[in-house]
Amino acid sequence: MVLSPDDIHNKEFSTKLRGYNIDEVNDFLEQIIKDYQITLKQNKDLQERLDASEGKLKYFNELKDSLNQSILVAQEAADKVKTNSKKEADIITREAQKQASDIVSEATDKSNQMIDEASQKAKRLSVETDDLKKQTRVFRQRLQVMLESQLEVVKSKDWDQLLSETNTADYTEIQHVLKEDNLDNDPNPSVNSESAAEITEAAQGETPVADGGDAAQDQTVVIFPDDDSDN
Question: Has this prediction a pTM greater than 0.85?
């Protein structure tokens, strides 16, 4: 049992012959009581401080545990946020790639369609150009044949003989023969030697011929071949 200051103060000692001086013992006990009271007070203060420290330690330990738990929760939340963010980023990336692929595919289809249309137009233009060239060649050939035919008529000896004759009757007969030959060979059935003869007789009856050369020039009829004759 721990002694208290009162226990020390109330302690009584028995006396013996030639014992200690009572006053000195009492004074020393008083001093011990004072020191003991101081020690007890210090011990009490230290105990209170120890209890307070232990309370703070307990609080800090609990706070540490709470902080650790919060850190774990925050870490888990951060991991979840990171995972969700990664998933969302992957989804956004896939959607963006899909949209980009769709845009590229659509642009490719449109460009291919435009290229096909342009190619078809170019082919049509090429065909039309070839047709025009063919038609132009055919027209040129027909024109050439017609001009050569007319040139042969102009260069024929009948013209020289016709121009050398001064007799009106002979000229009329030659003209009549030339017209019959040309008109009978003409594919147009409306033009023949009989109609030419009628025209010649009408011309001789209406206009007297004074000069054989001028009359021949006035009554000369040039027959152009039809374009279909080349075929």
Answer: no
